[in-house]
Design a protein that fits this description.
heterodimer; A: mainly beta; 7-stranded mixed sheet; 4-stranded antiparallel sheet; 0% helix; globular; B: 6-stranded mixed sheet
């Protein structure tokens, strides 16, 4: 069974540009979660998608947005990049409504804003 | 209130000794799951162990065990016979049954000394 995949692995952008990060969940998983992890810090919840809908978002400005496609893959867009957006962005997928079911994480996209 | 609290930003342990990483949680949902993840310096998130709110016994997975004290709302991770490869960040997480939401703690950085 293929795991959660993310692309690209690394992304270097200039302040003010836009970044697009992609995530493919494990087959059969309908929920996709996005997290931001600044260097040496914990995970900050960004967005949760399920069945194509945004179900919840964390305390991030509107320039962080995304979507989930019919095949449940997801895209995270960050507009008007700022230096502090430099971080590891982790995507995770899971099944709905099974409290014992964990999140499976992808390898992450490391975004560097210069 | 914080849903998941990890009060130890960093811990040191001697190789081959046991170590306990603390985690307390806050929920009013009777159905919930508790998870521990390991994040090595490479950035990947590795699922370690799960404990359900209705489980009568503490979960164990190899050298990992979860000391579940429901009344105190604590779910401490115990690593026995620490190895150098255990050096990593460790995150405690909770999934509430009603909302499919996951909450992560701020993490504990464990350093195993030779």
């Amino acid at each position: 069974e293929a795991g959660v995949t993310q692309s690209p692995t690394h992304l270097i952008k200039t302040r003010g540009q836009q970044a697009t990060l992609r995530c493919s969940p494990i087959s059969g998983h309908t929920s996709v979660y996005w997290y931001q992890q600044a260097l040496g810090l914990g995970l900050q919840f960004l967005l949760w998608y399920d069945e194509g809908e945004e179900r919840n978002r964390g305390n991030f400005p509107p320039r962080f947005s995304g979507r989930q496609f019919p095949n449940y893959s997801s895209e995270l867009n960050v507009n008007a990049l700022e230096l502090e957006d430099s971080a590891l962005y982790l995507c995770a997928s899971s099944l709905r409504d099974i409290v014992s079911y964990e999140q499976y994480f992808g390898p992450g996209t490391r975004l560097t804003v210069t | 209130a914080q849903k998941i609290t990890q009060t130890q930003p960093g811990m040191f342990v001697q190789e081959k000794e046991a170590v306990t990483l603390d985690c307390t949680y806050d929920t009013s949902d009777p159905s919930y799951g508790l998870f521990w993840y390991k994040q090595p310096s490479s950035g990947e998130m590795i699922f370690l162990i799960y404990q359900g709110s209705y489980d009568q016994q503490n979960a164990t997975e190899g050298r990992y065990s979860l000391n579940f004290q429901k009344a105190r709302k604590s779910a401490n991770l115990v690593i026995s016979a620490s190895q150098l490869g255990d050096s990593a960040m460790y995150f405690c997480a909770m999934r509430e049954g009603d909302f499919n939401k996951f909450y992560f703690g701020s993490g504990t950085k464990l350093n195993v000394k030779p």
